Amino acid sequence: MRWKAIAGFDYYEISDSGKVRSIRHKVTCKNGFVKTVPEKYLRPALGRNGYLVVSLWQEGRQSMRYLHRLIAEAFIENPWHLPVINHKNGDKTDNHVTNLEWTTYSGNNRHAYRTGLKKKPVKLGPEEVALIRSSSETEIELSKRFGVCTATIRAVKNHRFAYAKEAQ
């Protein structure tokens, strides 16, 4: 396991396998007392979007950082200055350096469609819109039949759907 300093954050290191630690260092308290802070491994948290994040401190300010971005910035060269980090196996929590690569926004989207992580939206045409409006089935039954959510069915029935004018 290799360790590297995290850019912009004194006293923190990251490993190529995704571990983060604060390194042993000294701090001066308000009363002038010098205290030694021991080495500590940080525990990543799962963010709302499914990516792991860690909380880093610098000069009394907290900063939440994505774990995969810290690893890529430390261990993966980015000569073309690509903006996005892709998880090759599609698992947002697998942050080993061998599972990460720099890519473009469109490359990341293509990868997501190719691997089934992202599905193309179901589009209802004028015929489907007309069938939904004339049907006596429930919203739930229609949503299952057409592969859309009940909110879409409701929008079609209330003439608030994008294809509404084409179907009339």
Automatic annotation (TrEMBL):
GO terms for molecular function: endonuclease activity; hydrolase activity, acting on ester bonds. Pfam families: HNH_3, NUMOD4. It comes from the Bacteria. InterPro entries: His-Me_finger_sf, HNH_nuc, NUMOD4. Residues 65-110 form the HNH nuclease domain. Keywords: Endonuclease, Hydrolase, Nuclease. This is DNA endonuclease I-HmuI (HNH homing endonuclease I-HmuI). It comes from Bifidobacterium reuteri DSM 23975.
